[in-house]
Design a protein that fits this description.
single chain, 394 residues, alpha/beta, Rossmann fold, three-stranded antiparallel beta sheet, 12 helices, globular
Amino acid sequence: MGVDNQKNHLKAYGITYWVLNKDLKVKWLLNYQGGSFLLPDTEAIQRECQIRGVSFDVISNAKAEAILEDISSPSQNMEAVVLEKAPKIAVYTPEGKLPWDDAVTMVLNYAEIPYETVYDEEVLNDGLLLFDWLHLHHEDFTGQFGKFYGAYRAASWYINEKKAAETLAQKLGYNKVSDEKSAVAHKIRDYVVGGGFMFAMCSATDSFDIALSAEGVDICEPMFDGDGSDAGYQNKIDFNKTFAFTNYQLERSPTVYEFSSIDMTQKRKVSKTTDYFSLMEFSAKWDPIPSMLCQNHTALVKGFMGQTTSFTRDEIKSNVLVMGENKINGEAKYIHGIKGKGFFTFYGGHDPEDYQHRVGDPKTELDLHPTSPGYRLILNNVLFPAAKKKKQKT
């Protein structure tokens, strides 16, 4: 899985998932040749790799044991993590959304990793209990319809999506979309607290936390929910209820395409040609979780934008781990934390291979980006729940 010895990093994750789905175990060799996978040697696995265009080396048992012995040495920042079971994956996304509307859905399809889609009705009916891993599509959990009002309020797609959301909320017994989305956010919170793994990108990151912190507070203006917002609602926000963010200021204007001060999009002072973020290096033996989530064939990853591009460092809680950052711009791109018995990862931006994705842009063809470091980070999270749990050393 290094730079030069793997033709298709993304599909390699699909092969690993396929092997796990056959009730076979895999060893993930953290920091060994870019985070390689040690698979059983069978004709079926070799054939599947050849069909999918995934590079592999056949090694002897003696060679495998020598590699594992080297990895186990205290002098090496490497570790062999056992992957035991293919996680059952859910993608939270509205009906009718096309796969290329969302980077995670695209890469799951490309890597041939199976998943099921869920939305509000399934979530509110405790459907998440059937899944090990949940991805949040680029959703607005605040009930402000993505803050698209300023630019797109007359567009047919905006009008139709707003009407569909209002119809669904009423069907589920809520008077407002904001109330229904708040209930959904709290169900997702309970899923994570109970031991689930949640991964979110772009606006699903900050809007999720905002929805939790605004429980019982009306932060929506009349064009969103038909009545005025609560007076002085900023002072009623409860940061103790959030996963990752604190002390942020909400964006009050309905015409501004922004939720809060969490996002760095409007505060960025970096050009496209110099926009990169660096992955942190962790101790594979002492901190295997962040090491897993940061496995890559490069420590420097191209930046990319979205409605929520990246996160203001000063507004991230102290118990949340920053795994990827742009130090020059003072922003975090990739963060991880524990909530109850579960875990969450937030990844800023919309599409790792589409720098400034806009409404109506053509889809990304991952056949052109089979070694994408930005997409590898997503797939690290997909395999993370498969790891055999060890007692924390720190």
